[in-house]
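Recap for those who missed Tuesday's class. We walked through two folding examples back to back. For each one, the amino acid string is listed first and its predicted structure tokens come directly after. Nothing is annotated here on purpose, so try labeling regions yourself before you check the end of the notes.
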Amino acid sequence: MEILNRTGLAGAAVAGLREEILEGRLVQGQRLSEVNLSSSLGVSRAPIREALFHLEQEGLVVSLPYKGASVVTLSPQDFLELSTLRTSLEKLAWARALERRTQADVRAMKVIIDEMRHAVENGHQEKLVRLDLDFHEHVFLVADHSRLHAAWQAIKWQVALYLLTRRIQVDDYHSIIVPEHTELLELLSSGEAEALDATIDLHIRSAYERLSTRQVNSSVITTSTPAPSSPSNTGG
């Protein structure tokens, strides 16, 4: 981790720790020691404590009595709830964005896709989750619906953790992220409402199904066969 500047320490700690989680360097279930984080970031424990509280409000960190803070571990039920709720929110967001998008919005979203492509081509897969989130965040902003955006804000960091799990456990994420988001943007740009609605549903549902299948297969392997000498990197 980079040592933080002395200004805006808590905010910088929030941003730094969030990126550590979303890029997979702090993994689900990992304990977050205030002492260790204070040392690695070069700040006192007070801004670390404040940052951990903020990340707990975002749903990325959980704090338990006598155990301290740790990165949230998402369960299969969490994945189902996030997927179904996200589908409902995104369908409304994309429908409203379809009526309100400008060429500037389309260009801004294309820039994000270009960044995705650059990350894939240069092996920076740890950047993909944040870019994926940025792309969908832009849609909620274009939708211009404050309560809808607030509902998205309430789940978006856990959606990011969901996407991270999907990126790590299912190895096709890097190969489909650019074409899938390009298709969504083309439908938004051309104004094809019905096709866009169906594609959004497929985009989110297929990601959930891939992850669920992978987890079921992994569970069967874990409970029925000895652990291999080296972990497999194949997707489900």
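Example two. Treat it independently of the first, because the proteins are unrelated.
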Amino acid sequence: MPTPATPTPAATRPTAHENLPLFALDADGQAQPTNEALPTPTHEDLLALDGPELTALLDSLTTAQRDQLAGPYPARWLYPPKPGDAPRGVTVCAGCGGGCAGLRLVLGVEADMVCIELKKDPTATSTAAGCTVIRQDIKTLDPRHPALRYTRRVMCTMPCIDWTRAGLGAGRNATNLEILLDAIDQVGAHMGNVWVDGTEVCTHDDPGHCDEDCYDHMIEPSGAPITELWALVDDMTAETAGLMLAPVIWILGLRSIGAPIESIVIEQSSALPEDVQQYIQTELRTAGCESVQWQDLNAADFGSASNRNRAIMSAHWYRHPGPVTVPGIRTNAALALGWPLDTRINTRGERKTSGGNVFALNRTITAVTGKIRGWYCQETGRRFTIPEVCALLGLPGDYPVTGSRTSQCQQLGDIFSPLVSAAVWGTLLGLPWLDMLRTYLAQIYPAVHGRPDPAAVLFNPDRHHPTQAVTEAEILRLFAQGDYPRFRIQTNQPAAH
């Protein structure tokens, strides 16, 4: 670009801004107004700046210009975070917000999350639950956006139907799998995530003559548009299986613009092929991620009243937090709901199938799916209410599920268990998540987990100053008034129920 006739007061204006009459910076990095019309800068212009210079440029724009540049993300995300701001995070294919509920409701973690979801009702549910939600096809959004450059957490919870028996395992078809794995490789190359060994013997006498080929280095990103990257899986006959390309596109894309990614969680069907898990893990390790691991985790082992076995990847860029410890906390569904212990649930009416159509509620029950909308008590014909379905999954009964009964049940059947989410995120963030999980379980399942010892000690939220021991009646009063979540209870309960 041509050099302006009059240099800016600050000698640090990047080349990308040499011919932009937007602002001038004085020695303190403050924006100086001009008399010229202020054109809207490009995304490349924003990515060329940081710190006070970026703030000065953004402050010089109108609200409409900032909204235009940030869209569809919050305009405030264009600005560098301030000390004390909650860490920014992105959830891809967020569904009805179960992953975020684990952070917020169980761990009490303050998070500035932007969730991306295509369907109307899950978008409404997660919005009502407190998320900032963008309703848009993930394939139309490019993570190399200046509003995302300060993202520290990534969570991916793509639909899983094509990996399961319900989807006939279409994603596991050899041709589909080959296309997906090749696409993961190619996206890595497009994002510059390929390590090249330099020449073993450098012939340059003058180090100033050396180029990148003299050293081990990463290749340059191609800058390919997002549509070209997603086109790599167009030939798959299993659409939701192709969405497993999303974690690679988003994590590597964010890293390519300098996003300080720290922690990553991926939730997927336990039927996800090991090859896909390994390919994703390889891309992250190549990019420099210190700790990447996959585990099969069942929500029933974390206190859920229903089973939900999932393949979970947890990764931390700088630390080795280790695998999630499975506590083996069990919840009896009948006790959790307050139903008679001898209740039997019919799932298929009068149809007879090899797997049966009736099960006992007096245990941790089978996995909840969207079909729970038709399940009923064999003796009375009573069906589950939506708050009861929430309870079976470890959610509070007032979780704001939106839409028709069919839609609500489908959203809940697809949810990332908030209990597992809390355990995974708690491990990554170094929190005492098991204690927090027990506190939460005592709140939502008081009949099973909410029976503290009468001599229990209540702690105020900073967990350091014990209050006076209280009676069992006082503890029950706190439960009844809904005040219990403000306290931590140290109990003598066994590790499993």
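Answers for example two:
The longest strand covers residues 291-298.
Residues 102 and 419 are 6 Å apart (CA to CA).
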